[in-house]
Amino acid sequence: MRVEAGGQPKRVTPSFESTLQYAGGVDRIRPLNRLEALLNVAAPDGQARWPAIVAVLREHGEQVDHLGPAQEKELLGALDRLRALLRIEDIDLAAEHINRIFDDVAARPRLSKHDGTPWHVHVDPEGAGWGTWLLASSALALAAAIQEHGRRTWGQCEAESCERYYVGDGRGGERHYCSARCASRARVARHRGRARNTAPAPPPGRGGVRT
Ligand SMILES: [Zn+2]
């Protein structure tokens, strides 16, 4: 969010992945990347991770100096809802969930031009709170990904004892892991599992054997 000359806060972040070049600089807008980072720093007991959430928002160009307890509650609530959405494996159910978010936040696309930026699309209603903004812009980015790829490009990492989320851009085929590290960990675990299953039974040990 940026504060305009008139004192009215205005969010700079549009809803699509894009690069905005304008007199004030260049903004790389990456709502999917932002969502992934937010979910991975915000545990369900989000309270303790609040400073990390604020840091992610700042990295993504938001003006966060005036966030208080009310905004914290809104954003943590929005993240809970988005986390639940990312866990839905069925594409049709995920699409329904996204549509419910659009309904609940009264999403309405509009072109906006502020702080010297070029025209760009927002879907959060004018003057919406932070929670609504995060829900609306994340839902639109996820909806665009479904439209483009016809499948989920996100999920929760399937590697053992990893609970991170990934929100991919759809490039490189279907994903199941948060990182190359987890993918290779899972590959090794599968390989070991197969080796165990095909190995001959180990000889009986001394335990239980009378001597
Ligand atoms: Zn992982």
From TrEMBL:
Cited InterPro entries: ABATE, ABATE_dom_sf, Znf_CGNR
SUPFAM superfamilies on file: Jann2411-like
Annotated region described as Disordered, given as residue ranges: 189-211
Any Pfam family hit: zf-CGNR
Domain Zinc finger CGNR: 155-194
PANTHER family named among the record's database cross-references: BLL6575 PROTEIN (PTHR35525)
Protein's name in the database: CGNR zinc finger domain-containing protein
Organism in which the protein naturally occurs: Phytoactinopolyspora alkaliphila
